[in-house]
Amino acid sequence: MDDKKIEAPDITNVHSLLFGDNNEHITDAVRSEARSIVSDVISEAIHDRERKDQSLSQTIAPLMEDAIAKSIENNKASLISSLYPVVGGLVRKSVSVFFNSFLEKLNYLVEYSLTIKGLKWRIEAWREGIPFAQYMIKRSFVYRVEHVLLIHRPSGNLLMDVASEHSECADPALMSAMLTAIDDFVIDSFNAKDSILDTIKTQDLTLIIDSAPNAVLVAAVSGLPPSDLQQSITQRLEQIHAMFLNELVDYQGDNTPFHNVEPHLRSCLVSEATPSQQKKPVYGTLLASALAVLLIATFGYQSYSRQQQLDALTALTPPAGIHIEQAVWQGDSIALTLWRDPFSTSVEEWLTANGIPFEEIQLTETPYLSLSTEIVDAKIETLIAELMLTPKVSYQFDSGNLSLEGNLLAEEANTLASRLRSIPGVNQVDTNLLQLQAVNQIDDHQQRQWLFDSYLAKLAVANVDFAVESAELSPTMKGKLKNIAQSIIYLDKLAPDLNISFAVIIAGYSDSQGVSTQNQALSAARANHVKSQLVELGVRSELLHSVGIGEVPLAQVQDGSRKVLFSTMVMAQTATPPKAAVTKAKPL
Amino acid sequence: MNTHKLCLIGPSAVGKTSLIRQFVEGIFSEKYLTSIGVKIDKKQVNTELGGVLFLIWDIEGTDQFCGFNPRYLNGASAYIVVVDQTQPSSIDDAIIIYQQAIAASNADVYLAINKNDLTSQVSEQQLESLTSLKFKRVISTSAKTGENVANLFTEIATSLLAKLS
User: Fold this and answer.
1) 3-class secondary structure, B87
2) Domain identity same for A162 and A182
3) Residue at a domain's end among A324, A352, A367
4) Which residues of A touch B75 (CB under 8 A)?
5) B106 interface with A at CB cutoff 8 Å
6) pLDDT surpasses 70 at A586
7) Shared domain check, A363 and A383
8) Per-residue pLDDT at A168
9) Per-residue model confidence (pLDDT) at position B57
10) Is B75 in contact with A170 (Cβ distance < 8 A)?
11) Cβ contact (<8 Å) for A177 and B36?
C-alpha cells in the first residue's frame, strides 16, 4: 500500500514533466503543427462528416448566406463587376440552350410527324400497340440503355433508378424485387452458389445484369447492345460498390444515402443512333418530300387534265365527212389522225366550236370522198351554183337518187347531168321533170330576149382569180372559164335573132404590191390570157376585147384584186342608138 | 420513404394470397406463384412514425413434403407465418416452416391465425405449442372480412420504423 502511495506522485510528476500539468506540451506541439495536420486531412474529413450526418452543409449554409449578404451589402459595385461578364455569358448560354432545344424538338416534330416515314412509323406503332415515341426510339437507335436499376441484393429492394427520355418502366420497385426472386429461383433450381443470371432477353429488351455481393446493377437495353456494354456496367457497379460499401452493408430500407448514386447511373444511359439517322438532313428530307408531293400532284393533275381533254375529243360526234382514226397524247399535244372530205367542215372550225383549243392539236388529215347524204347534197348544191343554174333548177336527193326540176336549155341540162353523175354518191340522175329547150329552137322573141338578158347577167358577175404575180389560170379557174365561155357562146347564138350586136370587154386587174408599171403589164397579161383561153374554148375572137386596167390601190380589197372581170357592150342593129351598155362596176 | 421486404409464408390454402389480395397493388399475375414459387406485390403503409413501402413477397404454400425456398427470405425486414384455424394440420406444418425460416433469417416473425370468421378447429395443445414459438406478435385475422389485416401491416411498419429511429 505504501509503495503505491509513493508511486502515484512519481507517475504524476513524470506525466507532468512529459506532457505538462494540463497536457500543454502535447497541445502546444500539436498546435504548432495544427495547420499542416489539418490541411492534410481536411478534405477527407469534410467529406466523411457530410456523408455521416449532413451536419456540415447545415452548419455552413447559414454562414455562407450571411457572408454573401454582407459582401453584397458592403461592395455591390465589386460584385456587379465580377458578375457582369458571367451573367452575360450565362444569359447567352441559357438562350442558346433554349433555342437549340426548341430547334431540336422542331426537327424531331418535322422529321417524324410530317414525313412519310413518320406516318409509316405511326401506323406500325399503332399496330404494335406501343406509343409512337417508344416506337420511334426503337427504330432510331442501334441500341439504347432505357433504364438502369441499382438493387440491394439481399432484399431485392430498389435503391435508385434512372431512365432515358420517353422510356417507360411499369414499376421499377416491383421489377427489382421480382428480378431478385427470379434470380433466387434460378440459383435454387440449378444449385448454384451465386447469381448466374447475367442477361435476360425479351423480344424488345435485353436486361444486362451484374451482381456484386451487396448490390445488383441492371441495365434494360433496347436494340442490339454492344459486347463492351456488359463490361462497362460491371466497371460502374464496382465503382458504386466500393464507394457505397458501408451504406450497402448497413442498409435498413432507407434509400436516402443512395441519392448520390444517380450521376453514376446516368452515365450508364448510353446509346448509339442508327447511321441513317445521323446522316440524313432533316430539312433536306422535308424539302425532298415536299417536292416529290408537288411533282406527283402536278403530274397527276396534268395526266388527269390531259385524259379529260382526250375524253372530251373522242366523245365528240364528228361532222359528216370527217372520220377520226386515232387520237393520242404525244408530248405536249394531241396527235389527231383523221379522214376528211374537202366539202366537210374544217377541223379547226369543228374543234373550236366544241371548246377544244386547236393549238394543242397535231393534225394529220387524209382526204377522202364521203358518201354521206349531207356531203353529197352540199356537192350538188355547189355544182348547180357553179354552173350558175341556181334559180332555174331545183333538186331532190334521197338515197343516191337525184331528181332535177326546172327549165333549162338542153345543153345546160346535159352539162349539169353529166357533172352531177361524176359526184360519188349520186347513183342516178332523174331529168324527167326538166323542161328542156334547144337554143336554136326557141322561137318566142320575148323568151329569147329573157334568155339573152340572163346570160348577160351571169357574165356581169363572172370573174377569174389569179395567184400573186401570175397570169396563169388554176385548174379551178379553167373550169370556171368554161362556163363563162359557154355563156358567151349562147349570147352569140341568141344575138342574131334578136338583131343585137355585142362585145365582151375583158378587164385585167392587179394588186398594188410592187412596181406600178409591172402591175400594169401583169393586168394586161391576165386579160390577154383569159381572152386567148376563151378563144380556145370556142368563143369568136371578134367578140372579145382585152384591156389591162392596172393596179387597184384599195387596201380593203388587196387580196381580191388579182382578177379579170367581164363587161359587155350591147347594141341593137337598128337605126336606134345602142340600147344598153352593161358595165361591170363591182370587181368582187 | 423506407422500403422493406416483407414475406408471407405458410402451408398451402391457409389464405396467404387472399390475405393480401385486396390490400396491395401489384402488376404480376398469380401464375408466378406456381411457376417460380413467389409473387411480389407492393403496398405503402402510413403510420404515426412515417410511411413505409412494403414489397410483399407472397411465397407459395408448402407442406411436409415440399419445403419453401429459404433464399426468398434473404434481406427480409420481417415475415409473417400464416396458419388456418379451421385446418389443424396447418398448425403442424407452420411449426416446421417456422423452424426452417428462423434458420434462414433473423428478421422479426409474425403469426397470423387466419379465417377467424369461421369456427376454430385447433386444439388447445396445438395452440399452446404454436404460441410458445418466438413470434413478435400473434394476431387473429380474416381475409374474408378484412379484420386485423391492415392492423397487422401497420403494426409491422411501426415496429420497423421504431427500430430504425
Assistant:
1) coil
2) yes
3) A367
4) 152-157
5) no
6) no
7) no
8) 67
9) 92
10) no
11) no
Per-residue pLDDT, averaged over A467-473, amounts to: 89
A292 falls within a domain: no
Tell me whether B99 touches chain A (CB under 8 Å): no
Overall domain count for chain A = 5
Enclosing domain of residue A10: 2-48
**Chain B residue closest in CA terms to A181:** B72
Contacts of B132 (CB under 8 A, 6+ apart): none
Q: What is the distance in angstroms between the Cα of A200 and the nearest Cα belonging to chain B?
A: 16
User: Chain A contact for B16, CB < 8 A?
Assistant: no
> What residues in A contact B58, CB-CB < 8 Å?
none
CB contact under 8 A, B4 and A171: no
Pair (A346, A361) in one structural domain:
yes
Compute the C-alpha angle A160/A161/A163, nearest 5°. Answer: 160
Q: Cβ B5–A156 below 8 Å, yes or no?
A: yes
Residues A255 and A311 in one domain: no
Contacts of A255 in chain B (CB under 8 A): 1-3
Q: How many residues does chain B have?
A: 165
- Do the Cβ atoms of B76 and A178 come within 8 Å? no
Question: Among residues of chain A, what percentage have pLDDT more than 70?
Answer: 86
Summarised one tens digit per residue, pLDDT across range A155-179 is 899 999 998 877 767 788 888 888 8
Those residues with Cβ within 8 angstroms of residue A207's Cβ, 6 or more apart along the chain or in another chain? A179, A199, A200, A201, A218, A219, A220, A221
- A387-419 residue pLDDT tens: 777 677 888 888 888 888 888 777 778 888 888
CA B26 to each of CA A76, A174, A194, B56: distance values in angstroms, whole numbers, following the listed order: 58, 8, 28, 10
Nearest to B160 among A177, A185, A253 (CB): A253
Apex B7 CA angle, B39 and B87, nearest 5: 90
Please list, in sequence order, all residues whose beta carbon lies within 8 angstroms of the beta carbon of residue B108, skipping any fewer than 6 positions away: B77, B78, B79, B136, B156, B159, B160
Contacts of A182 in chain B (CB under 8 A): 36
Same domain, A468 and A527: yes
Residues A350 and A415 placed together within one structural domain of the fold: no
Question: Between chains, do B77 and A187 touch, taking CB under 8 Å as contact?
Answer: no
Cα–Cα distance between A401 and A423 in angstroms, integer? Answer: 12
Q: What is the pLDDT of residues A95-114, one digit of tens each?
A: 766 766 666 666 666 666 66
CATH for A214: 3.30.450.70
Task: Report yes or no on A102 lying in a domain.
Answer: no
For residue B84, CA distances in Å to B15, B87, B150 come to: 7, 5, 18
Is the domain of A226 the same as that of A343? no
What's the 3-state SS for A39-103?
Answer: HHHHHHHHHHHHHHHCHHHHHHHHHHHHHHHHHHHHCHHHHHHHHHHHHHHHHHHHHHHHHHHHH
How close B106 comes to chain A (CA, Å)?
13
Distance from CA of A266 to the nearest CA of B (A): 22
Q: Which residue of B has its CA nearest to A159?
A: B3
Report the CATH number that the domain containing residue A570 is assigned in CATH. 3.30.1330.60
Give the residue on B whose Cα is nearest the Cα of A185.
B36
Q: Is the pLDDT of residue A582 over 50?
A: no
Asked if residue A159 belongs to a domain, the reply is: yes
Q: Which CATH number does the domain housing residue A386 bear?
A: 3.30.300.20
Q: Say yes or no: A243 and A166 in one domain.
A: yes
Give the domain-ending residue among A367, A398, A417: A367
Whether residue A253 and residue B57 make contact (CB cut-off 8 A), yes or no, is no
**How many angstroms separate the CA atoms of A175 and A181, rounded?**
10
Q: Which DSSP letter does residue A256 get?
A: G
Domains along chain B with CATH numbers: 2-164 (3.40.50.300)
Verify whether the Cβ–Cβ distance B2 to A253 is below 8 Å. Answer: yes
Question: Residue A60 falls within a domain, yes or no?
Answer: no
Q: Does ipTM surpass 0.85 in this model?
A: no
**Which amino acid appears at position A535 of this protein?**
V
In chain B, which residues have their Cβ closer than 8 Å to the Cβ of A156?
Answer: 5, 55, 74-75
Question: Is the per-residue pLDDT at A328 higher than 70?
Answer: yes
